[in-house]
Design brief:
alpha+beta, three-stranded mixed sheet, two-stranded antiparallel sheet, 5 strands, binds adenosine monophosphate
Length: about 140
């Protein structure tokens, strides 16, 4: 299974924020959109980082709620692991496990084209298993 097939199923929407946004604004966006991370982009849509709920919780835990007024740039991860539509889901699972992150932006010809979360990976995996089981049951029933 490829990243492209997952995106075809889930869509290409990506929630983006600017590095100048405050953590408070981003926390509000993550809550309303019911997602765990936003990709930080510059004025040209180029990836500048990624900020996840984990970064916000860590910042509050270390410095208190006043950090919510601070900019995303101070708490985002600037070195972002990205993937491409041609990549396999297996390689993505390995990267997520080794890198200990749950979100991976997808780039098509260098431009942001989607985001795969660990939830998408698990759902795809379960769907595949379900299809395999159904095919086996059908095969046994008709053999
Ligand atoms: P997550 O598990 O995605 O909530 O993120 C855990 C940590 O990894 C946070 O510090 C994120 O900023 C960071 N992170 C999330 N996704 C990525 C990614 N694709 N590349 C690099 N770091 C990431």
């Amino acid at each position: 299974m490829s990243v492209a097939r997952v995106l075809a199923r889930k869509g290409h929407d990506v929630i983006t924020v600017s590095a100048q946004n405050t953590l408070q604004v981003v926390a509000g966006i993550l809550a309303i959109r019911r997602v765990g991370a936003a990709v930080v982009v510059d004025a040209h849509g180029v990836i500048a980082g990624i900020i996840s709920e984990r970064d916000i919780i860590r910042a509050i835990g270390e410095s208190g709620p006043s950090v919510l007024d601070k900019p995303v740039s101070a708490y985002m991860t600037a070195k972002v692991f990205t993937t491409t539509p041609a990549a396999s889901l297996a390689s993505l699972m390995q990267a997520m496990t080794e890198g200990r992150f749950r979100h991976v932006p997808v780039l098509t010809n260098g431009a942001l084209d989607g985001l795969i979360s660990i939830g998408d990976v698990v759902k795809t995996h379960l769907d595949d298993l379900e299809n395999e089981h159904r095919a086996m049951r059908d095969y046994i029933a008709t053999a």
